């Protein structure tokens, strides 16, 4: 998959835009990402001790090896490089299936036709007024990731609401405030020909939480392995 992605994510009380070029393969997972600030990220499963190569696009202008799930790479971001693409969004839109609930998934309705990136598209909309933060007592060996999967809400809001860090370890019996779904209102625009998402917009109890638009999407076309190497022409890695 190749695409350009426009993102708006609320971090604290501020919503900031970003524009990213992405190249992805999924068996094995490989990712090259470059944003509008010149930050480049290259991750290839099984290489570089499973750490990402990161060119920061600013001082000290050297390539770093960073844990893709660590606090440095997650700072100011809702999701990790390992969650790039449509898979993470599809999982979140599936709702808290691990808890046996289907109310969030069933809340989606067809809401009309539109045009997205010049292509005819469908609008799917979920209005989920039951969205709220609930108290959850952590079980044995649970992590922020496992709790987020359990509730289908993503990790960022758990971290933010409970004043945790990405690297925080949970203890059995700890009580967290956790969202009971992905959002209070979610709007998904789907390309009528490919059935791929053109955009996903998520609102929660504070307003806009995140929005992603996928542009110039090319899928199921081979990407040469050289484009996932640090020495590829044009990369600063």
Number of helical segments with 4 or more residues: 5
CATH class designation of the largest domain: Mainly Beta
Computed over alpha carbons, the radius of gyration is 18 Å
Name the helix and strand elements from N-terminus to C-terminus, one letter apiece.
Answer: EEEEEEHHHEEEHHEEEE
Helix content: 10-25%
Distance between the termini: 21 Å
Whole-number tally of structural domains: 2
Going by helix content, strand content and strand pairing, the class is mainly beta
CATH architecture of the largest domain: Clam
Strand order of the largest sheet: 6-5-4-3-2-1-13-12-11-8-7
The stretches of 5 or more residues where confidence is low (pLDDT under 50) are: none
Major sheet attributes: 11 strands, antiparallel
Overall pLDDT, averaged?
92
Q: Would you report the number of β strands?
A: 13
Oligomeric state, counting identical vs distinct chains: single chain
From the 3D structure, determine the CATH topology of the largest domain.
outer membrane lipoprotein receptor (LolB), chain A
Share of residues in strands: 35-45%
Query: What overall form do the CA principal axes indicate?
Result: globular
What would the keywords be for this entry?
outer membrane lipoprotein receptor (LolB), chain A; 5 helices; 237 residues; mainly beta; two-stranded antiparallel sheet; globular; 11-stranded antiparallel beta sheet; 13 strands; Membrane-bound Lytic Murein Transglycosylase D, Chain A; 41% strand; 2 domains
